[in-house]
TrEMBL record:
Name of this protein: Carboxypeptidase
Pfam families cross-referenced by the UniProt entry: Peptidase_S10
Domain of life: Bacteria
PANTHER family given in the database record: RETINOID-INDUCIBLE SERINE CARBOXYPEPTIDASE (PTHR11802:SF3), SERINE PROTEASE FAMILY S10 SERINE CARBOXYPEPTIDASE (PTHR11802)
Signal peptide: 1-20
GO BP terms, alphabetized: proteolysis
Organism lineage: Bacteria, Pseudomonadati, Bacteroidota, Cytophagia, Cytophagales
Recorded GO MF terms: serine-type carboxypeptidase activity
SUPFAM superfamilies, alphabetized: alpha/beta-Hydrolases (SSF53474)
Keywords, alphabetical: Carboxypeptidase, Glycoprotein, Hydrolase, Protease, Signal
Amino acid sequence: MKIKVLIALLVISVSGMAQSRKIDVESKVVTTHEVIIKGKRVPYSATVGTQPVWDNNGDPIATLFYTYYERTDVKDKDSRPLVISFNGGPGSASVWMHLAYTGPRILKIDDEGYPIQPYGVKDNPNSILDVADIIFVNPVNTGYSRITDPKASKSTFFGVRQDIAYLSEWVNTFVTRANRWSSPKYLIGESYGTTRVAGMAYELQNNQWMYLNGVILVSPTDMGIDRSGPVEVANRLPYFAATAWYHKQLPSDLQSKDLLEVLDEVESYAINKFIPVMAKGAWATESEKNEAIKMFARYSGLEEEIIRQHNLDVPYNFFWKDLLRHEGHTVGRLDSRYKGIDRMDAGMGPDFNAELTSWLHSFTPAINQYFMNELGYKTDIKYNMFGPVNPWDRSGDNSAESLRKALAMNPYLKVMTQSGYYDGATTYFNAKYNMWQTDPSGKLKDRMSFKGYRSGHMMYLRAEDLAKSNEDIREFIKNSIPPAGTPAKY
């Protein structure tokens, strides 16, 4: 049986017989459901609605759309973990992790993540809802979230620092309304969402006085860590090797090895031998250059002459275009397992992102149907898979340092990174590099961990990795909750 409760606190303006197309500043629809997770029945409520963003005078200037899943057979809410989930972009809705990763319902797709018809959703037997409640949040202009005050400046929302500040304030309000201050709390962010949650970890603790147990970084950005020059070039090579291995473009001796064995070898070469050659630049000897070109070709699947023409600095865009050029295909940016077809084989980059087109194919109809037909939320506002958030103020991105501060000031806090080996937008090796560089002292490294998966940016689209990555979150939550009575001290 489903129970629906609707609260609408904003009076919709009416012109003639037609309503203006506006979203309610505050609204709520509650339905009840159940799902089988890891073989056990889990009853839950789904609250979908909007909650205001206020200005300094306490007036609503925007509203954020959210979906909150709460297990209903739990008596002790104080010890029940709460996971607060954000996607990235910036400008991306929460749909991706919501309908494909941690939520109780997921897309109907094949085991490798490709669209199938009829579109729709099904139960997620791997959801983390058995161990934690989850709220999926849509920042301004994503999903159904919108600016409601026409006088409000977009600069209040659209920037690294602004985004972190107003979302942290919003989370404070939600946690208070939901009576979850005593719960162990976790932030999870994907892609640009990792910049967001890394910054929010410090903002929540320092300015909202809300302390966390964990931060999960899914396919993280560079998070403000500098890696220009030789490091930037060398950090591409392990991803190139992973993609070339997947498409069987490596020499037979490498192709016969397991992916992780190949990547260990390539990572060692990139750090220990390739960076020194690149650092020498024009002063590297011909022998050193030739050896570097040979090894780059061996690990990337590209021709030596092409690498020479690029002075060893092969851009991602060219790699996506060239790796399978001889077959008449490009490879995807966010997930290089996906192939595309261009107008012509010539050129310096693909015509389109094959993987993103595939994902929008399956996600867009599913999320629109799901909110209306299963969760009972109806509105004429368009669900923005990607919303207008430009110009985005990228100044002040120091999120890795913010995360380090949050770790230092909270002995309970732990961080886990999750990355797909075939992600070319936020590569797994750059994710490792983030982890190495976040705390140069090494005093916090025992609280940071890395998990890799044999898929791309949204590694959970592959059925095997969906199970594995959710289980990794379960273990992370379990290991980041200290025994009762354990003091937070060094």
